């Protein structure tokens, strides 16, 4: 999957996110903010009709962020998503995604998301 | 405070957060995650949940806040390098009274330039994140 077009992390979006968590808005991008960019980027992989994921059966199982640089409001970043693994466990699937977040200087953060996809009860 | 004043196994903070349905609506709007199980009781119950549950990322965000408030309060000049969590149990948020999330942070690993904290996060007697870890690197 090619990288997304660069998106600017607007000061307004950072402020709203910080306020929703009760964080001081100091102009830095809150640690968990990147999920609001990386999950939509990864959805482009998952929404592929050949893959056919039903979001009503999805639970967020695990989440990890590695930060290589502090991102500030106003940064322009691109997301590149890959499926790292799909494991079937007792009729359910564990889907492991990684999204690299890059800015003008290179890799700024890596974001791993593991989703639990409940098996079709039918 | 410098990292050398910490010791492995030490509990460095215990922070309680009150969570209401209105908080979840504000988080949904800020994050773009409008899954109805985080706002609508009927949708949550249809998905097999006891009631509306908090976004896992909302709870993880509160953990990040607890870590930041501890580091700022202790005068530790460090940046977050790594942050992870496993969502073990949902945080159930009733319409009446909401929920409480309690985050306890302990020093798990320590060296001259970084500290790794392990957070235990409880709500309504359940361990909701298992484990949550944060590595802070000295600036």
Automatic annotation (TrEMBL), chain A:
It comes from the Bacteria. The lineage of its organism: Bacteria, Bacillati, Actinomycetota, Actinomycetes, Glycomycetales. It holds the Pfam family FAS1_DH_region. This is UPF0336 protein. Residues 28-97 form the FAS1-like dehydratase domain. It comes from Glycomyces algeriensis. Gene3D superfamilies: Hotdog Thioesterase. InterPro entries: FAS1-like_DH_region, HotDog_dom_sf.
Automatic annotation (TrEMBL), chain B:
It comes from Glycomyces algeriensis. Pfam families: MaoC_dehydratas (PF01575). GO terms for cellular component: fatty acid synthase complex. Belongs to the enoyl-CoA hydratase/isomerase family. InterPro entries: Fatty_acid_synthase, HotDog_dom_sf, MaoC-like_dom. GO terms for biological process: fatty acid biosynthetic process. Signal peptide: none annotated. The lineage of its organism: Bacteria, Bacillati, Actinomycetota, Actinomycetes, Glycomycetales. Residues 12-117 form the MaoC-like domain. GO terms for molecular function: fatty acid synthase activity. It comes from the Bacteria. This is MaoC family dehydratase.
């Amino acid at each position: 999957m090619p990288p997304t077009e660069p998106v600017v992390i607007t000061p307004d979006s950072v402020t709203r996110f910080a306020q929703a968590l009760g964080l001081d808005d100091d102009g830095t991008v809150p640690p968990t903010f990147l999920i609001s960019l990386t999950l939509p980027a990864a959805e482009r992989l998952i929404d592929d009709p050949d893959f056919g994921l039903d979001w009503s059966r999805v639970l967020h199982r695990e989440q990890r962020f590695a930060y290589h640089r502090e991102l500030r409001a106003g940064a322009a970043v691109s997301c590149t998503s890959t499926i790292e693994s799909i494991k079937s466990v007792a009729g359910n699937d564990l889907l492991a995604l990684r999204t690299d977040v890059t800015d003008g200087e290179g890799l700024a953060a890596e974001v791993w998301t593991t989703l639990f996809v409940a098996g079709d009860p039918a | 405070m410098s990292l050398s004043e910490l010791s492995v196994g030490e509990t460095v903070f215990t922070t309680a957060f009150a969570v209401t349905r209105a908080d979840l609506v504000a988080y949904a709007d800020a994050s773009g995650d409008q899954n109805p199980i985080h706002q609508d009781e009927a949708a949550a119950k249809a998905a097999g949940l006891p009631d509306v549950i908090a976004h896992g990322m909302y709870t993880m965000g509160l953990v990040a806040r607890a870590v930041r408030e501890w580091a700022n309060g202790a005068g530790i000049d460090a940046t977050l390098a790594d942050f992870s969590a496993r969502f073990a149990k949902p945080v159930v948020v009733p319409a009446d009274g909401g929920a409480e999330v309690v985050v306890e942070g302990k020093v798990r690993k320590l060296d001259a330039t970084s500290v790794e904290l392990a957070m235990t996060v409880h709500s309504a007697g359940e361990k909701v994140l298992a484990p949550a870890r944060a590595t802070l690197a000295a600036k």
